[in-house]
Amino acid sequence: MPAAARMSPLRCRAAARGAAVRAADSWGTAIEVPGLGALNVGGYADVWSVSCASAGNCAAGGYYRDGDGHNQGFVVSEENGVWGRARNVPGLGALASRESGVIAVSCAPPGNCAAGGHADDQSLDYRGFVVSERNGRWGKAIKVPGLGTDVVLSVSCASAAAARPAGTTRTATVMSRGSSPSDGARTSRTRRDAKGHRCR
């Protein structure tokens, strides 16, 4: 995973940890992410991001390790308080030469989310990707045009009422893999929509 992405405050290690639900000022019991154990043949997995559009309607993403020792991105959705099964990001296998991962997830309204992260190319350089969920179904991941070797570190979904006619707005903040606030390097952040146009 990119060094900058390791600043995420939420981590879930393999099958020992998962998602916990908070209600009425008390935390529920943590559970293993459903279905992640079956994907995680390599024995190591992380949840990097969780977003909830409303109570009991959330999505999460991260990566697991496959049988060849490579990290692969996954997403999982919760509907009405019930978590579905973790799944590979549709289309991400075709974008990645060996490794991929989901770094950021954002949802608004329920069942409509966006996620972003990285997928390495044939030169093993990271390339940013985005993927959208609409009405509870995840679409196909695409590389973000014009980002070069950057990764998507953040996505944000506006409410449906505030969205442009095309639907819920998805924007991505990206930062080059070699730059991070912690190492004092100069960072470059660009806001773009999923088609690669700058956000207004």
Key descriptive features of the protein:
200 residues; 5-stranded antiparallel sheet; disordered C terminus
Task: Write down the domain tally.
Answer: 1
Question: Mind describing the biggest β-sheet?
Answer: 5 strands, antiparallel
Q: Which structural category fits the helices and strands? A: mainly beta
Coarse shape: globular
H and E order: EEEEHEEEEEHEEEEEEEE
Mean pLDDT: 75
Low-pLDDT sequence parts: 2-18, 161-170, 172-200
Could you describe the 3D structure shown?
With 200 residues, the protein is mainly beta. It has two helices and 17 strands. The protein has one domain (3-18, 28-193). It has helices at 36-39, 92-95; strands spanning 18-19, 22-23, 26-27, 31-32, 45-54, 57-65, 71-79, 82-83, 87-88, 100-107, 113-120, 126-134, 137-138, 142-143, 150-157, 170-176, 190-193. The strands form five sheets. Strands 5, 6, 7, 8 and 9 form a five-stranded antiparallel sheet that branches. The longest helix is centred in the N-terminal third of the chain and has 4 residues, at 36-39. It is globular. It starts with 17 loop residues before the first strand and ends in a 7-residue tail after the last strand. Residues 2-18, 161-170 and 172-200 have low confidence and may be disordered.
